[in-house]
């Protein structure tokens, strides 16, 4: 398993927006990948998350869904650049394309193109017990939709949300100058492992 | 006394950096201006702070120091645009130009061009007891210099520092999308009023 | 008109949550009060916003609505402490209590007790053209409700939203240590002035 | 190699301050550990960084230096709790204790007890070419010292600094309420690999 935290400028980027390094790291860690995990990357953009995930699951596979053909080319180029053979790129607009995928252990939702709820529905039907969904949100609306989705499903999921605000101290001559990166919400939903859930309930009662 | 909080786009700006509205508001409030205050605005840039300060001190005056001739033109244009007659623009690189100014009640230090300590020295010799110096810092180095200056003068000054990080929620179609503004440190130093200081000491001893 | 920016510890506080100084300042400035403004402070808590607003509207009046009797006592104590006679405290849970108030120029909504939409409805019927509503939100849900309310009323209102994250640098021995304050969303809705609106429409068409 | 991102409440904590999960994750990733890395954790506190690092370097070792005997007990308890045998706890106040350690690949500096510069000096003499030092700072002073140290050594090190502000959305009844965590500066210094450095220089000249 290789290191996390590829530098942003190691990716081929074009004009497609890319999840920045720190957000990528935290999202990947929150997903608790194993070396054989099956992973979806929905709205994969440049494929930065897909590439880092693929390196963490050498015995698994990453399914990258992306509607923008220009971005699809970038994902393939980045996968090739890091010599990764376990990324399957699917040029579809999610939730289209999800139904034929195998069951999965973890899901990243970056871009949702205004279809976050149907995407979460489609993903839910594929996610194994104990699996995790990590949603990156940059708008209040998509955050609210994700929160409402998982609140409505609180018999099956628990979730936590953080907002991460990174500021870079740029070295300009003798100065280190604060340059803000746009903040991102990272919502991590954990699907109850049915057996553990029962156990957890018992423990709570015992306490 | 007119309202605070002129919108950023009401100022004529050019390429000169401008203190953004929320930072301007907090800086101006921290300075505790009165209607007859004499105010320095050091490194005045576009004059946004000078203009807002001038409106708050209709019976006072703002001395705007700025080394960049292009910025000086902007300050004058902005003062004219808001029909303000109580701004004196001085095209000098501080601390040059401070020595001939009258004593003052409040000082804003925006740009310091790497000369923050000599500026604070020059300003200290002009600031009345009970007056305030508000320093906006966007680099670690200038923040550290300001802190060290006022820590060394802790018999005469107390200070507080906040870091302010504003994020705008930009309305893009059906979304409200987070756009970060670079964070700014606002250090506010209060020069002890000699009489009150004596009293404060007594109170502290009494407690 | 007196200075804005009373220090937090100048207020009598008890256990009631209080809007912190920087958020208070920005909220008050965004409301664009005039010396004769009629102001509502909904969910007034300790009355910190009411007190600062009352000082800015010496010829106007602040109506502070607050459901918690303990908080009502604090508001009255703080008003007395600052010798303010232009605060009317109303011990009701908004929107109850709003219908009998006079028309107003500005509204602050701090606490909404889960009734933000009916509060905004009640307030809308009282707010004069050109008036402003400033909503402070600390939860995603109330932010979303406020955004949806004003998006649905976009023929009458425009709005802007900022998130403000303040960090205090606490002086501990030789160090200045970062202590975060919880971030707050400040939504400012501006009710179109009907005459200006017509004009604005014309201008837009002309452009 | 096991997953990163142990939850904060999986650690035994006592009253000793602990680096929070997100900062831990980012710090560990920035250090670019390999499975056989030798790692120092200076000012190890509860040992949270040591434990996560030890899991990432199963063929390597973590040397945890900590002056506080109470914290030393916690580090040992946490190491035992995660069944880690590759943590060596040293009850010394750094830089004391560093001189007898073997050369290392990566260094975390959490607490420095006001001795950051001597610690960095001691650590520099032990760090292999290509190694990394990750400094977490919560005060302006320690950040400034770290920046000045690595600026003075710019022939041997490059560095980057980020400030990370995490906000948790706490689920309280029907609400998700923003609760800020104190921001932390993470400075990552990379010691030039002498051979690569020469190459980099050549490339730069070629460009």
Would you write up a description of this structure?
- Four copies of one chain form a homotetramer.
- With 207 residues, chain A is of the alpha/beta class.
- The first copy, chain A, has one domain: 3-Layer(aba) Sandwich (Rossmann fold).
- The first copy, chain A, has six helices and eight strands, in the order H-E-H-E-H-E-E-H-E-H-E-E-E-H.
- An eight-stranded mixed beta sheet of chain A has the order 3-2-1-4-5-8-6-7, sandwiched between helices.
- The longest helix of chain A has 13 residues, at 69-81.
- Chain A is globular and about 55 Å long.
- The model of chain A is unreliable at 198-207 (pLDDT under 50).
- Chains in contact: A-B, A-C, A-D, B-C, B-D, C-D.
- Chains A and D meet through helix 1 and strand 6 of A and helix 1 and strand 6 of D.
Unreliable runs of chain A: 198-207
CATH-derived architecture of chain A: 3-Layer(aba) Sandwich
Which word captures the global form of chain A? globular
> Could you name the CATH class of chain A?
Alpha Beta
**CATH topology (fold) name of chain A:** Rossmann fold
Average predicted local confidence, pLDDT of chain A: 92
Q: Approximately how much beta-strand content do the residues of chain A carry? A: 25-35%
The name of the CATH superfamily of chain A reads Vaccinia Virus protein VP39
How far apart lie the N and C ends of chain A? 39 Å
Name the helicity range of chain A.
25-40%
- The helix/strand series of chain A, from N terminus to C terminus, equals HEHEHEEHEHEEEH
Separate helix tally of chain A? 6
